[in-house]
Amino acid sequence: MSQNTNYSSVTPTQATKLEGDDKRNYIRNLFDDIATRYDFLRTLVFLGHTSLWYRQALRDLQLQPGEKILDVGCGTGESTRCLNRFYPGIQIEGMDLSPGMLSVARSMDADSNYFEGDVCSIPRPDCTYDVVVTAFTFRNFPNREVSLAQMLRVLRPGGRLLILDHFYPEKPVLWRNIYTIWMSKIVPQIVRPFIADTTPYRYLAQSIINQLKMPDFIQLIESSGAKVTNTNTYTGGAAGRLIAVR
Ligand SMILES: C[S@@+](CC[C@H](N)C(=O)[O-])C[C@H]1O[C@@H](n2cnc3c(N)ncnc32)[C@H](O)[C@@H]1O
Fold it and tell me: What is the pLDDT of residues 57-82, one digit of tens each?
């Protein structure tokens, strides 16, 4: 797949299995395409729950003024702005692969430091940050192991990595079935009036269905050399957080 290939040339199910440059190009094109409608559509798709998930996942981090934070895959900057609001005085940078998403972030928040970069080769020296946060991104990364190794590399020893993401609820089965129908059948209809191509939201549903289960996520992080200290799930398992210490 070339950098300019239309992402619709791959089915959402195939897209979740892409790796390396193919995944990177697919994801960059997808987010560039929806950047200006991303925040509005996300509120619609998750019925405003993302604000709640940010509060639950980020409020107890107890970041101190002067601490250096990297928000990996900051997108339009909602996660970055939340952290800035919760913890005045932190030094936060937001990095993203998609120029379109970064352009929206910069238009909303001229004071924050946003830069373009790929999680698989973060353009920062070793041990730069006290905390690395990545919210609703991990399913989209080109390579899980390399992403984790890079996020841990830029953390100082003892620094914390926080991953917040969508998960596929397991139990009760009724809730899992309702969530599946909502994401796979209803969401594409709801977003249709606002975007010409609903592929990004069909990909979103498929990427959630294929998300790692929490125990596998823990194992993956620990095999990268970090110690998982906290895990939490929200809204019946539709979102989850892991904190690991380098
Ligand atoms: C669902 S958005 C989440 C944005 C933001 N963290 C938030 O909570 O609103 C996922 C973001 O991850 C970014 N992303 C995906 N793959 C990436 C990569 N390899 N390196 C850096 N950012 C990436 C996308 O461009 C997109 O902006």
Answer: 999 999 999 999 999 999 999 999 99
d(CA 151, CA 179): 31
pLDDT tens column, 181-218: 999 999 999 999 999 889 999 999 999 999 999 999 99
CATH classification (class only), 20-168+213-245? alpha beta
Ligand 1 atom closest to the Cα of residue 54 is 8
Write the DSSP string, 69-128.
Answer: EEEET-TTSHHHHHHHHHSTT-EEEEEES-HHHHHHHHHH-TTSEEEE--GGG-SS-TT-
Query: Which residue CA neighbors atom 9 of ligand 1 most closely?
Result: 78
Ligand 1 contact via 228 beta carbon (within 6 Å): no
- How many angstroms is it from 135 CA to the middle of ligand 1? 8
Between the alpha carbon of residue 78 and those of residues 85, 94, 101, 153, the distances in Å are 10, 10, 11, 25
Domain ranges of the chain: 20-168+213-245
pTM, whole model, 2 decimals?
0.95
- Is ligand 1 within 6 A of the CB of residue 31? yes
239 token code pair: 């979102």
- Is the CB of residue 135 below 6 angstroms from any atom belonging to ligand 1? yes
